């Protein structure tokens, strides 16, 4: 009997993007679970939702994030109990997906040869060769296109085919939804830019209902948005900001015809349920890394010269990546015009799947990094298949290998550590 543990200690969006890895593990143990167990450790705030989204997993709740009412002594006790519970289970593989103090502490409970992702070896932090490669890609994000869900899925040797992860996008009958913002405000559109987009999309959709979604902290943005809508659109609006728990949010999103959203957890919920997404990516958000997973979604990606930026670095360019979303040409396209061209600085991508994973295919606008991204995906597929040694000199893939590989990538693992996951 195989036993797997997945440590996913990040936020809602990350939990949803773990689906391909988890689905692949479920497939290995069989639909009835007779071949083993899949355990999933998450922050306590996500445990109930995780149990609903992944009913075949045994969910373990951990205090991974600070929150009201979490006294240090109670947190320490909860961590100790959870670690004792996990340490008592003989796992065949442990997938630690986040580099965090708690994640690394839990990974230290298990021998390094059964761990994938982040881990510890002789008390030192370590990570899989694939993750080392991914970190180097931050130098060339435009030309490197690997979805986060696929990175985690390929930590397993038998990932589920990407097209089987989320349902194809199709309307569900509940009208148009709008997710106001994510955790990073600069990755979202302000009400004065978003309002014309919402008004145009609502009219073009023919929907009878418009639902606003967000946290209590975004309630003022929701009110500001409604004030800028025309009376007919405003009268169809239901403001649910701050009024839904995660379970209720999942139910509302699952019934929509379409969701307008920046890069948010709600976006990944919609993709999880097969609800069509129209996403607006700007600032540090890059659709080739964290776009909606599956077939049939669309992403309007800001491709101004400074995008994608680093969210940890303050913007000194006046948030110019927002400006293309205020271009009237975008409204004409959202309204159904077949003749309008894409605004300068914007590209429209449609989501699809290939043998490697999720892929965003250009439909409108310009994507100057498309050729480089295509070469990189071919290189990544070869790398994951263990075919690096077959690279021919002078090919684009060989050039990528020279840029992204270090001598340490070709060394044998340290004494005492199994080579599984290193080749």
UniProtKB/TrEMBL annotation:
InterPro entries reported for this sequence: Glyco_trans_9, LPS_LOS_Heptosyltrfase
GO biological process: lipopolysaccharide core region biosynthetic process
Alphabetical keyword list: Glycosyltransferase, Transferase
A single MF term (Gene Ontology): ADP-heptose-lipopolysaccharide heptosyltransferase activity
Gene Ontology cellular component list: cytosol
Keyword Glycosyltransferase among record annotations: yes
Record keyword Glycosyltransferase present: yes
Name under which the protein is recorded: ADP-heptose--LPS heptosyltransferase
Species whose genome carries this gene: Solidesulfovibrio carbinolicus
């Amino acid at each position: 009997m195989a036993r797997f543990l997945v440590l996913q200690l990040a936020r809602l969006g990350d939990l949803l993007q773990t689906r391909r890895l988890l689905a692949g593990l479920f497939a290995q143990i069989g639909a009835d679970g007779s071949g083993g167990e899949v355990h999933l450790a998450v922050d306590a705030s996500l445990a109930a939702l995780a149990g609903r989204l992944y009913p075949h997993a045994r969910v373990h709740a951990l205090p991974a994030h600070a929150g009201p009412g979490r006294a240090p002594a109670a947190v320490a006790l909860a961590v100790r109990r959870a670690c004792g519970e996990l340490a008592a289970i003989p796992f065949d593989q442990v997938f630690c997906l986040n580099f965090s103090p708690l994640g690394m502490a839990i990974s230290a409970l298990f021998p390094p040869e059964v761990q994938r992702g982040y881990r510890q070896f002789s008390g030192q932090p370590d990570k899989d060769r694939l993750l080392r490669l991914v970190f180097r890609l931050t130098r060339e994000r435009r030309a490197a296109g690997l979805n986060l869900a696929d990175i985690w899925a390929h930590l397993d040797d038998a990932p589920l085919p990407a097209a089987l992860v989320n349902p194809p996008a199709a309307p569900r009958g509940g009208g148009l939804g709008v997710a106001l913002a994510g955790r990073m405000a600069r990755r979202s559109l302000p009400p004065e830019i978003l309002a014309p987009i919402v008004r145009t999309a609502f009219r073009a959709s023919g929907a009878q209902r418009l639902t606003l979604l967000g946290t209590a902290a975004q309630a003022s943005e929701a009110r500001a948005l409604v004030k800028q809508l025309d009376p007919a659109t405003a009268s169809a609006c239901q403001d649910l900001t701050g009024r839904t728990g995660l379970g209720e949010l999942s139910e509302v999103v699952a019934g929509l015809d379409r969701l307008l959203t920046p890069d948010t957890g709600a976006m990944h919920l919609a993709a999880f349920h097969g609800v069509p997404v129209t996403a607006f990516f700007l600032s540090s958000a890059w659709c080739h890394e964290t776009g909606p997973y599956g077939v049939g979604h669309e992403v309007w990606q800001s491709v101004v010269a400074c995008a994608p930026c680093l969210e940890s670095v303050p913007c000194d360019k006046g948030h110019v990546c927002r400006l293309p979303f205020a271009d009237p040409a975008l409204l004409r396209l959202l309204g159904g015009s077949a003749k309008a061209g894409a605004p300068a600085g914007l590209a429209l991508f449609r989501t699809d799947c290939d043998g490697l994973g999720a892929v965003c295919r250009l439909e409108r606008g310009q994507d100057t990094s498309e050729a480089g991204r295509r070469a990189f995906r071919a290189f990544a597929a070869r790398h994951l298949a263990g075919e690096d040694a077959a690279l021919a000199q002078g090919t684009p893939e060989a050039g990528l290998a020279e840029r992204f590989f270090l001598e340490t990538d070709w060394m044998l693992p340290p004494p005492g550590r199994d080579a599984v996951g290193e080749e």
